[in-house]
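Hey, can you fold this?
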Amino acid sequence: MNDILPIVLSILAAVLVIGALIPVLIKTRRNITRYPETRDANDPEVRSGGGTAVDDSTGTIELGTPGGAGPDVVDTTTVPDDAAGLETIPVETPLPVAGRLTRLRERLVRSNNIMGKGLLALLSSDRIDESVWDEVEETLLLADLGTEPTMQLVDALRERVKVLGTRTPEHVKAMLREELIKLVDPTMDRSLNVERHADKPAVMMVVGVNGVGKTTTVGKLARVLVAEDKDVLLGAADTFRAAAAEQLATWGQRVGVPTVKSDIDGADPASVAYEAVKAGIEQEVDVVMIDTAGRLQNKVGLMDELGKVKRVVEKLAEVDEVLLVLDATTGQNGLNQARVFSEVVNITGIVLTKLDGTAKGGIVVAIQRALGVPVKLVGLGEGADDLAPFDTESFVDALLN
């Protein structure tokens, strides 16, 4: 009996120790730890506003504390044990980019073939007189091609029709295809600058007015990059639109991509962008994508804001890509938005959303002519994977089929 007593006491002691440790371990696992601020407090453009919070349960990195914790404060906030109200978002596997191109081309054929079929019918007429050329010109203008590109295309077609003489539908289609491809310009570099540098990630800013699907486009583009095996981090620098940061974080969670955002309404966008790039450097990611605000009510304010975001980010890393998101259904009105943004930052590429439905295919040419930069990505629907790299020949073939 005396031999058994020490064993029993040892077992009881072990049970008590384990029982005491379990709550501590659970609490530690569920903590959201706010780390000390590391930004340069002497830099007037990088506003100090609390620490960086990493939530392991959502992959979201939050900046600042509601109480305005200073640079030297480490605040620990515990997630309640009852997490029944928290939404669990499963991680999805994005579709391969190659598969999207085929599907998007088919959708483009269905929605944008009025322009191509109209031109084919007109140019296949037995007799092409001035009234036919007027209709060709009108068809191109209605397709949002723009005045200058329309005149250029009509002149080229006139010359080729004279030389061609007899015209079969096949000849006309081949002629139109060649001239449209020239107009869309296959020589433009449509690749995304998303290759990681030796010691820093590639940095991409995404700009555009509110309502064009900018934040959604950032989320969809993150899926494109993840499908290409890129390690991505998102920065929610649109701090003025309600729920923009949460929307972006949700997109990130769907593909396992972390999001840096502020938990303070109206926080300094440049500060959020700075922290996103800093986190990207520390975590050695391939690409940091920064979503920005898009208010156009005050052009001067927008210029100052976007310019500041870019300057502050470049204290840490070069901005490799600035994508402008435009709604294709706005037609020529979208060109005015494009010009405003091109005055603010150096636009390197266009993302054209909603290129289905009422959108006109000619807007691709008009926008490229107006800005001198290529359309790099197109969106053709509401689906999460309805965004794909723009391909000149596929686009023209879709117009003519």
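Oh, and this one too while you're at it.
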Amino acid sequence: MGNDGRTTLTRSQGSPRRSRTSMVSGYVFRVIREQLDHTQDSLAEAFGVSADTVAGWESGRRPLTSLAVGQMLTHRHRLMRMGVTPALLHALDKALEADVLLAGALSDDEPTGHSPLGAWVMQRDLVEVLAWPLNGVAPESMRGLDSPARARRGPAPVRPELPAEDRRRFFHRMRRTAEEARGGDFLVRRQALYLAGYDDAPDTPAWLTHEQRAEGRGDWLTEWLTARSVATVAARRGDRDRMQHFITTTLDGDDAGEAANLNYWAYWIGESPHLQPTDDFIATTGTPTWHGHKLLHHLVAGLAPDRGFFDLNTHTLWALLAARPGLLRTAPAGRALRDRLPVLLDGTEPSTRARRELEGIRYAIRLAEA
């Protein structure tokens, strides 16, 4: 144990690192093969490779991330012609990216100061895939798939599996990255803190609280993002009070905070067309470049009272419709929202704030339908 009570990872000198650096993309590739109703032998024949090569891709023994870019694109185009859905192809792309990030975090040769976490602001489609082997929650693109037509031979994993040693190493690396970035690269620190929040170790909440206090005062955007990150991690762990405090102190009645919240959400779920290298876009004022249809759909789908994000989803939805009431007339999600509101208001017990905002949304729907 370290001086702070946390486990310090050690490894005997000369012991090789054995992490499967293509576990997520290999698993997604296997799912794609099964959705096409191919065996490893038949897919190998279609691809012009050996069955052992396909088996190696799926197990991670022959990492897909090691293929040349042109070769991977050729395989991707072949999958498109075979009828793989765009959502699964997108999941494969993000799985390859997640494997590169995981390999970097697990590598003993990658200095924390060179972390790719500071290269761009990550979005939901990547983070969900990256977190999959950490929390066991399948990304949206991998849910609701048909069961394989062919019975699997023997036991098979139901998701990408990160060995326990690698899991501990990953979270240890995220903590160290966040600590070393304190007072330096804020984007690296913020995203490392966010990923460290997936750790179910007992000391994680206390460590995150300590890191928030250690941040010190910064500019408005830094403090806003720090508060949001801590509230998000707390909500993910079931602490709804921290999220309600965030809404009350940084959003409600604060035009800059409300605009930042909408900008962040829109980027997070992919409304914005371009990746951002810094967080500065979040504080952009004026007319945003995103439309809101995708964000409306996402927020409506996430209105589940038993989730820790329910209050933030409700408030963000209320703020979105206040800023863009026309969405209720043009977006299909408006009808789903109208049908769900009676259940949320009469069949659940939302907080006082959430109930007030849901009533405001119902009134906005009535105005849009008048």
